[in-house]
Specification:
Layout lengths: L12 E5 L3 E4 L5 H4 L7 H14 L19 E3 H23 L5 H32 L6 H29 L12 H9 L8 H7 L7 H21 L10 E5 L2 E6 L3 E7 L8 E8 L15 H17 L3 H30 L6 E7 L4 E11 L10 E12 L8 E6 L17 H27 L5 E4 L5 E4 L12 E5 L6 E4 L8 H11 L5 H23 L5 E3 L7 H6 L6 E7 L5 E9 L4 E12 L2 E5 L13 H4 L3 E3 L9 H5 L2 H26 L3 E6 L8 E7 L9 H6 E9 L5 E8 L22 E7 L7 H29 L7 E6 L3 E6 L5 E7 L13 E7 L26 H11 L2 H18 L7 E3 L1 H7 L7 E3 L2 E4 L4 E6 L2 E8 L3 E6 L10 H8 L5 E2 L46 E4 H8 L2 E3 L2 E3 L1 H22 L12 E5 L7 E7 L6 E7 L9 H18 L2 H11 L6 H13 L9 E4 L6 E4 L1
Antiparallel strand pairs: 1-2, 1-3, 4-5, 5-6, 6-7, 8-9, 9-10, 10-11, 12-13, 13-14, 14-15, 16-17, 17-18, 18-19, 19-20, 19-21, 22-23, 23-24, 24-25, 25-26, 27-28, 28-29, 29-30, 31-32, 33-34, 34-35, 35-36, 36-38, 37-38, 39-40, 41-42, 42-43, 44-45
Protein name: Mediator of RNA polymerase II transcription subunit 14
GO molecular function, one term: transcription coregulator activity
Subcellular location: Nucleus
Length: 1228
């Protein structure tokens, strides 16, 4: 219960609990005090009491105050009101949205009803709130209940704590403080009754004497009784039945046992002759584990009655032992017969209810007759619904009246050896086991009789007895039967005796099998009937062979019920015994395989092809030469005859019965003819001349569709192609999967493989060859698509032959020394070229270019690489050491366009062979190499996200013109005839490469010259070929581009520079120099780019940086900001064509600026700072060389020399240390 507190006059607090609901702790505002006098007397009384409490006059409450957190939970009234208002607002919002969708009359009525429901629900909710507020005013009366509830809970907790403490003391502290147990019961008897009823056992032993006979005397008495019993039994031995298998005397008791029937115990109670035998116990040994689960079959009350009757008869009998036997033996035999009857009744009503019948059961006569293998038949003499039951065999279980000592006996009708019997001696009777043994013998008997009948009907038929657990007869119907699946198995159902015939490959419900089994089961089965059924089964077996042989073929068997009505009408002409096969690829064609019996032992197979088109069906003769493209297939589909009888003047049985391969051949042949018919029709529609010829009629695929005329589909004269083409045909290969083989046989091939001799994995080509190309995915193609693919392949061969034939004329005379033919397969040409024959050109025709409106290229030309021919037979291969790249891949599209325009492969190969050497080295500039711009971007502006850019851009303008770009420098390289190359500066706005002619002149002095005439600049749609477009002319760095007027070697010219291939190769050949991979042209362009970035770096260091007088490309800068005595000059050396630096100190300002130290500083710049390419490195170099105080220049020079000559894995630690006498930099 919440603690009492002064309340806010503007609000209230509500407390909720399960017992009292909501309590009021509300203050009154000044507006409510005006109505105070109008309240009811009880309210005034309550208010007066409240006012008294406020004045301090408070009556003492005997109940404890409820501490905070122990009372019921509370909720503010304003929260409750806010929740109600929000709920009403949500409901009215949803109602407004839903009412807009109801516009019909019925919707108008629903809108009104919704408004009424909403108003009613809202009014009810706020009425509850009003009632709650009114109830709050009197809810303070419930505070007493909260105090009472808290007091009761407190007392309950005290009781619980006390009980827990007492239990803990009992189990812990008081465990060892218990008193010993006293004799409470005698004490209570003495105190209450005044007597002592419980006496010690010593008193009993004192007043009650022990037994009068000792154990020794007991043994003597038992021995005497055993002697008397044995004597009396010996006197009766002549009359004791031999059924007593065990007679045991011990402890004065004689035990007599008849196995499987009973066991009795008898004794004598005296030594006189008049003492009668006393029957002590009877035990019945007859048991039933099948129904009674081994429980006693005779109740104890029945045994007591038998015990009394038998004792009375033994008392008056001359031979009591014999009398007991005959009485109990008669009872046990009757009990055994009753057990067998119950078991038989259970089986007749259960799993053998249709197969056995109890014909007679007479307990008095003690006879049970059971008939098995029942035949049920109907007779006109019987009433409706009655069935005549005749048992084929019977078994009789009875007691022989002449043999009183014998038990139950079994007699079978008819008699047979080794039939089932009953073991009465064991006591465990089982009718099921006896019938099972009998059924097994009867099945063997019937099978032997059937064997004699079959052998008599057909003497040459081999009938074997098989089966170990279940005997069966196995018959080989066909001479070539080798597997058990085709063997006829004859067995007998052991439950009902019916004959079962089975062939694994045939359906178990086959009509002939079922009829043959019924014929063998019936008693009227003649030899002719058996021979007829065997003939039918042989025919069915061969038909099944045919059916299984076509399972893997592209056909499926169709049932006649699945056919359309007009198709069924056509089948009336077909044989009744037939198989209907539908081609999966041509579903409107059906092959009907009919079987016609001709004579006694001959069956002829007939094939018919049925064509279904819309609602019309017709048979296509297979032996007519004019129906199926003028080629007879009668010799392929004729099946001849099947004979199942050996005759001297006829073919052997094995040859006649194994015909499934011939059927498969016929199905495939017919399907090939159908497919060829479709293809020929489609090809003729396209204008392609075809002719169906037979290359080999004895194997599937012997037919071929030859192409004879393509003039209407080829846009040019193809006479030369067909002059070399011996054969062009289409074959079907359906051995493993259905594919088409497009075969082209050529003689005098224009190009053959002519790679160098001696290669282990290659051989010289031949002028005559046959090329076969497979057309895959035939199952997903329509005939139209397939024909289109054939035409496309033919067009590919024709176009390729056209260009290859022209090239072959010049190849033998000229190109053979510059390239080699790797392979020519009519649809693809692969040529290797280059000095080492390690560059490949792959040429193929693009069939997509022949589609109407297509913009595809005629030829697909790709370039690749291979291993040099000189390394094929050598163990050392430098493939990974020297990666190869075919530079002609850059202009593959231009080469395709050229070949499409002129169809001249001679020009293409001449171009490839002439330009491969210079392009090999020039193409290395096109490899991806990045240059870091991070330091420069940090110096001149904000840092970029990816501060890298490509060093070079190599662009192709046309087949003879390339442009190499680095920064704002653009060089144009043009291939000329006579193994000449022209290079000129085509930088944006004006030429910028000073000393470019000097660079190539240094490499090739006698072969380099400046051309007097300008070369035409080819047009290009690629904007990047003209250099960066984001720079304006005034933004180019003119300070580093001013030519030297005194040195003509460094002049700037835009005229082409003519040179040989050897010169450009030396200028662009990348080699590893001082750990850097570079070439002369790369070194020159890098130096120009470095000068531009060095100027920006020095400008950021000092605004006084300026260019020197008109000189070579250089930067001149003084260090006046720091010392005003150091001058730097960075320039491009005309001899070495690389950057060098010249440092000059004012005279008298640096005593350590000796020529040796200045040389070290310059060399360090060339080998380290310049090669590093980092702007911060240049800035650090300048700042470091400006330190001249205290002889620092000499120390810095020593450090630079040590770094340039340092060995690997050598570390340096550099620090500054000040000495008293001499201050210098030292290194350790």
């Amino acid at each position: 219960m919440a603690a009492r507190s002064s309340l806010d006059p503007t609000g209230s607090v509500l407390s909720l609990d399960e017992s009292s609901g909501i309590s009021d702790r509300e203050g009154f505002s000044s507006a409510e005090q005006d109505n105070y006098s109008n309240r009811k007397p009880e309210d005034q009384t309550r208010n007066s009491s409240d006012s008294e409490e406020e004045d301090g006059v408070v009556a003492k409450n005997p109940l404890p105050d409820v501490p905070p957190g122990c009372g019921p939970p509370t909720i503010p009234l304003n929260v409750l009101l806010d929740f109600s208002i929000q709920h009403v607002y949500h409901e009215i919002t949803v109602l407004a949205e839903l009412m807009q969708r109801k516009t019909s009359d019925q919707g108008e009525q629903e809108r009104k009803m919704s408004l009424v429901h909403f108003a009613h629900a809202t009014r009810s909710q706020f009425l509850k709130l009003v009632a709650l507020v009114k109830w709050i005013r009197v809810s303070k009366r419930m505070d007493v209940c909260y105090s009472i509830d808290y007091l009761l809970d407190l007392q309950s907790q005290y009781f619980i704590d006390t009980a827990d403490r007492l239990v803990a003391m009992t189990r812990g502290d008081l465990e060892l403080a218990r008193l010993p147990e006293y004799h409470i019961a005698p004490a209570i008897d003495v105190l209450v009754l005044g007597t002592y009823n419980r006496m010690p056992s010593k008193i009993k032993e004192a007043f009650i004497p022990p037994a009068k006979i000792t154990p020794r005397e007991q043994k003597q008495v038992c021995a005497r009784l055993n002697q008397l019993i044995e004597t009396r039994l010996s006197r009766l031995s002549s009359g004791i039945p031999p059924n007593y298998k065990e007679i045991h005397v011990a402890n004065g008791i004689a035990t007599l046992l008849v196995p499987g029937e009973f066991e009795i115990k008898i004794t004598l109670l005296g030594e006189t002759e008049e003492t009668k035998w006393s029957l002590l116990n009877i035990k019945i040994l007859v048991e039933d584990y099948e129904l009674g689960m081994g429980l006693p079959l005779v109740h104890n009350l029945q045994l007591n009655q038998i015990h009394g009757v038998l004792q009375s008869r033994m008392n008056v009998a001359v031979n009591p032992v014999k009398e007991a036997f005959f009485n109990l033996h008669s009872f046990c035999v009757s009990l055994q017969l009753d057990v067998l009857y119950c078991q038989t009744s259970r089986m007749a009503a259960g799993r053998l209810r249709e197969n056995i019948v109890i014909e007679k059961y007479n307990p008095k006569e003690r006879i049970l007759v059971v008939g098995y293998w029942v035949k049920r038949s109907k007779n006109k003499r019987l009433t409706v619904g009655q069935v005549k039951i005749d048992a084929q065999y019977r078994v009789q279980i009875y007691e022989d009246k002449d043999d009183k000592l014998g038990g139950l006996k079994v007699r079978h009708f008819p008699h047979a050896p080794r039939l089932g019997t009953i073991d009465c001696a064991s006591g465990m009777l089982s009718m099921d086991r006896m019938l099972s043994e009998t059924f097994a013998v009867r099945c063997s008997e019937r099978l032997m009789r059937l064997r004699r009948i079959l052998e008599a009907a057909e003497p040459l038929l081999e009938v074997r007895m098989t089966g170990s657990n279940v005997p069966t007869l196995s018959l080989s119907l066909l001479p070539d039967t080798s597997s058990n699946e085709e063997m006829l198995t004859v067995s007998v159902n052991s439950f009902c005796g019916k004959v079962i015939c089975n062939i694994n490959v045939l359906n178990s419900e086959n009509e002939d099998l079922v009829a043959f089994a019924k014929a063998l089961y019936s008693s009227r089965c003649s030899g002719q009937t058996i021979r007829d059924y065997l003939q039918k089964l042989r025919t069915s077996l061969v038909i099944e062979r045919y059916r299984r042989s076509v399972a893997a073929l592209p056909v499926r068997e169709i049932k006649e019920t699945e056919l359309l009505p007009f198709v069924k009408v056509m089948l009336r002409e077909a044989p009744k015994q037939r198989i209907i096969l539908q081609y999966t690829r041509s579903e409107n064609y059906y092959l009907i395989v009919g079987f016609i019996s001709e004579g006694e032992d001959v069956v002829t197979t007939k094939l018919q092809l049925l064509e279904c088109d819309d609602e019309r069906a017709q048979f296509i003769p297979l032996d007519n030469d004019t129906e199926v493209f003028q080629t007879a297939v009668a010799d392929a589909v004729e099946q001849g005859t099947m004979r199942f009888k050996i005759c001297d003047d006829r073919i052997s049985l094995i040859e006649e019965c194994s015909r499934e391969q011939r059927l498969s051949f016929a199905i495939i042949t017919v399907e090939d003819r159908i497919t060829y018919m479709y293809l020929a029709t489609e090809l003729q529609k396209k204008g392609v001349g075809v002719e169906l010829r037979r290359d080999d009629a004895h194997v599937p695929g012997g037919l071929a569709l030859h192409i004879t005329d393509v003039k209407t589909v080829v846009p040019f004269d193809a006479a030369e192609f067909f002059k070399c083409c011996v054969r062009s045909c289409l074959r079907i290969d359906n051995r493993t999967r259905h594919t088409f083989q497009f075969e082209m046989c050529f003689e005098n091939i224009p190009l053959v493989r002519d790679v160098p001799h001696g290669l282990a994995h290659r051989r010289e080509g031949d002028k005559d060859t046959t090329w076969v190309q497979e057309i895959s995915q035939v199952n997903q193609m329509t005939p139209e698509k397939l024909v289109e693919g054939i035409i496309h392949r033919l067009m590919r061969y024709l176009y390729m032959y056209k260009v290859v034939h022209q090239f072959s004329l010049a190849y033998e005379q000229y190109f053979k020394q510059w390239c080699n033919v790797e392979v020519y397969t009519f649809h693809k040409l692969v040529v290797s070229y280059g000095e080492n024959r390690d560059m490949l050109m792959v040429l193929a025709f693009n069939v997509k270019s022949q589609n109407p409106g297509s913009t595809e290229d005629y030829f697909l030309m790709n370039f690749g690489q291979t291993m040099p021919h000189s390394q094929f037979n050598t163990p050392e291969v430098d493939w990974l050491k020297k990666p190869r790249y075919n530079p002609h891949a850059m202009m593959s599209q231009l080469l395709r366009d050229e070949l499409k325009k002129n169809n001249d492969l001679i020009y293409i190969m001449h171009y490839l062979c002439e330009t491969i050497r210079p392009f090999m080295v020039i193409g290395k500039f096109g490899r991806i190499r990045f240059q870091s711009q991070k330091s420069l971007s940090q110096l001149i502006g904000p840092e970029v996200f990816f501060p890298y850019r490509l060093k070079y851009h190599l662009a192709v303008l046309d087949l003879t013109t390339l442009r190499l770009m680095r920064g704002n420098v653009i060089l144009e390289i043009k291939m000329l005839e006579g193994q000449k190359v022209a290079v000129r500066d085509v930088s944006r706005y004006r030429a910028r490469c000073a000393g470019l002619y000097q660079l190539f002149s240094n490499i090739g002095p006698g072969t380099t010259e400046i051309m007097c005439e300008e070369l035409e600049i080819p047009e290009s749609d690629n904007k990047i070929n003209a250099g960066p477009t984001m720079w304006k002319p005034e933004q180019f760095m003119d300070a580093v581009d001013v030519p030297h007027e005194d040195d003509p070697r460094m002049k700037i010219t835009s005229l082409p520079i003519l040179m040989t291939h050897d010169t450009i190769i030396k200028a662009c050949d990348f080699q590893e120099i001082d750990g850097h991979v570079t070439c002369p042209l790369d070194e020159y362009l890098y130096s120009i780019s470095y000068l531009q970035r060095a100027l920006l770096t020095l400008e950021r260091m000092s605004p006084r940086a300026q260019q020197g007088p008109a000189n070579n490309l250089f930067i001149e800068w003084d260090g006046t900001n720091a010392t005003a005595m150091v001058y730097y000059k960075i320039f491009l050396c005309p001899e070495a064509m690389t950057l060098k630096i010249h440092i000059e100190y004012d005279e008298g300002t640096n005593s350590e600026a000796t020529p040796q130290n200045l040389t070290a500083l310059s060399t360090y710049f060339e080998k380290v700072v310049f090669r590093c390419g980092d702007e911060y490195a240049l800035q650090s170099y300048v700042l470091m060389t400006r330190v001249t105080s205290f002889g620092a220049t000499a120390s810095i020079a020593n450090l630079m020399n040590a770094q340039m000559v340092r060995r690997e894995k050598t570390g340096f630690i550099v620090y500054l240390r000040r000495k008293k006498k001499k201050k210098k930099m030292s290194n350790e």
